[in-house]
């Protein structure tokens, strides 16, 4: 049988994926403070030199890990136009994913929590949160323009509240999996935002 030779880019991509997976595992098992390039290489079966070649330094590795773990948490959103339906799909999908948190998602939440007290992490996660809020703000603005979201709501305030609630629930789930009924919370929270965001009803006489 002919041997299929991988291209240099394919080998590079495979090595990078293995290194990021190893870094996520170490963060979940031992925390970000224990993360070193040497330990990541050892866990992934590569030398420290390979890790340095791919990422240069620990800060760049963590930044890439943050971007990788955040991307695509709720699948299918890119297919929807901005607006109320997309916003509710994001909330519902985010909470649904908490029932099957993989190592990358766990690593992201732990890194996000650490960013509050770690100056090296803070800029990375401020950027990620700002992008998340901007995405939500665009949904609220589009919903207001379409007449399906209460125009009296402030899009920035809604975005901050949604991010805070979703991340807070996720951290509770990570800390106490048995104490958070994901499906029950999912129904309650999604329903809450559907009612809260809807157009204000005129008072009856």
Automatic annotation (TrEMBL):
Domain HTH tetR-type, first and last residues per copy: 13-73
GO MF term list: DNA-binding transcription factor activity; transcription cis-regulatory region binding
Pfam families (UniProt xref): TetR_C_6, TetR_N
InterPro entries named in the record: BetI_C (IPR039538), Homeodomain-like_sf (IPR009057), HTH-type_TetR-like_transc_reg (IPR050109), HTH_TetR (IPR001647), Tet_transcr_reg_TetR-rel_C_sf (IPR036271)
Gene3D superfamilies per the UniProt record, alphabetical: Tetracycline Repressor, domain 2 (1.10.357.10)
Superkingdom of source: Bacteria
Keyword Transmembrane helix: no
DNA-binding region extent: 36-55
Keywords of this entry: DNA-binding, Repressor, Transcription, Transcription regulation
Signal peptide location: none
SUPFAM superfamilies recorded: Homeodomain-like (SSF46689), Tetracyclin repressor-like, C-terminal domain (SSF48498)
Protein name, as recorded: TetR/AcrR family transcriptional regulator
